[in-house]
Amino acid sequence: MTLLAPQIEAYLENSSWIRKMFEQGIELRKTHGADNVYDFSLGNPDLPPPAVVGKALHAVADQAAAAFSLGYMPNAGYPEARRALAGYLSRTQKQDIQAEDLILTCGAAGAINVFFRAVLEPGDEVVCPAPYFVEYGFYAGNFGARLVPVKSKPLTFELDIPVLEQAFTARTRAVLVNSPNNPTGQIYSREELEALAAIMRKHAARTGRVIYLISDEPYRFLNYDKLELPSVFDIYRYSVIAGSFSKSLSLAGARIGYLAVNPKIENAARLYDGLVMTNRILGYVNAPAVAQQLLTACVDAEVDVGIYRQRRAAMAKVLDDAGIRYTLPRGAFYFFAESPLQDEIEFVSLLLKENILAVPGRGFGYPGYFRLAFCVDEKVIKKAAPGFRRAAEKARLKH
């Protein structure tokens, strides 16, 4: 007898490459010891949270004896937490964002699922530039929709607007972008986003159907060269922003994120009410109470971006010395480098023999490349350098 739905059976057969490499890392550590394994597979922030987070956590603990201090609240989140978040987003997005435009969610992943539940129907399509975070396909599939990945330009990973336009159909309901991007570190320019918005408006006018633009922004604070990071609210009316504090506060396990609705949307209050409902009926009910209280106190804090900037430089030197091509990531904490072998899985296997864990590009819908997460100690990056050189030399001999 079948225990699982066919869809989930298929997902298990094609499970995440990130998790596969992570599990291989566990085995390598057992054999070689943790200090001799160089794991760049998982985007798990390793920096401690800012000191203010610890102080806020103590304050929450001191109040835990009070009645209802950790009880239910409005499904959209504590009013004071949303007010604090509204102030933060108004400053960082350079937009007038009010508490009434915001829903606190179980991470950015929860925000995207809440939005998809509210607007997608079975058979709908969500266009997404590739490479992309692999879970996006699962999120769309949760509600009977289909992710439509569209390849970005090779090596630079800029949006390929003409190719994106060809992907639009009568079933297109949304476009999902992630900037700064996981896995490439690319930051989309205002010109790229405006060109994308133009084709969305044109297609919506032709079909008579609202097409939403979803901007997934958990890495927004990791903008190493202080480039313009335009707000999608300023570019396209039917837009929403999903974000989290998993990276900026190093609170990935606290599951605190948000969904911001563009107040310029016609009848935005109706969309907002639907999102509050889906946040509840999906079983999230509300974002975690403790995490909301931490956010209220710490929304303006963030980990030291300078540490990640130094790691980016160290990783670039390692790849340069190995003769591996890449485009320097503008944000996030990943390199998406070109494989010296056409089959990147073969090269990732060569890296494995050097106890180096990387993720094949096909895991992000873009074969021929591999991802390295540099949210690890700089010593680990530098110590892995000889292994990268040896693997690249072996790859050139095979070529």
Question: What do you see in this structure?
Answer:
- Helices cover 42% and strands 14% of the residues.
- It has 14 helices and twelve strands.
- The protein has two domains: 6-49 and 304-398, Aspartate Aminotransferase, domain 1 (Alpha-Beta Complex), CATH 3.90.1150.10; 52-298, Aspartate Aminotransferase, domain 2, CATH 3.40.640.
- With 399 residues, the chain is of the alpha/beta class.
* End-to-end gap: 47 Å
CA-based shape: globular
CATH architecture of the largest domain: 3-Layer(aba) Sandwich
Structural class: alpha/beta
Looking at this protein, list some descriptive labels:
three-stranded antiparallel β-sheet; seven-stranded mixed β-sheet; Aspartate Aminotransferase, domain 1; Aspartate Aminotransferase, domain 2; single chain; alpha/beta; 399 residues; globular
Task: Describe the secondary-structure layout.
Blueprint lengths: L5 H8 L3 H16 L5 E2 L11 H12 L16 H15 L8 E4 L1 H13 L5 E6 L4 H7 L4 E6 L9 H6 L5 E7 L11 H18 L4 E5 L22 E6 L12 E5 L6 H14 L7 H10 L6 H18 L11 E5 L5 H10 L2 E2 L1 E2 L8 E5 L4 H6 L1 H14 L1
Parallel strand pairs: 1-10, 3-4, 3-5, 5-6, 6-7
Antiparallel strand pairs: 2-8, 7-8, 9-12, 11-12
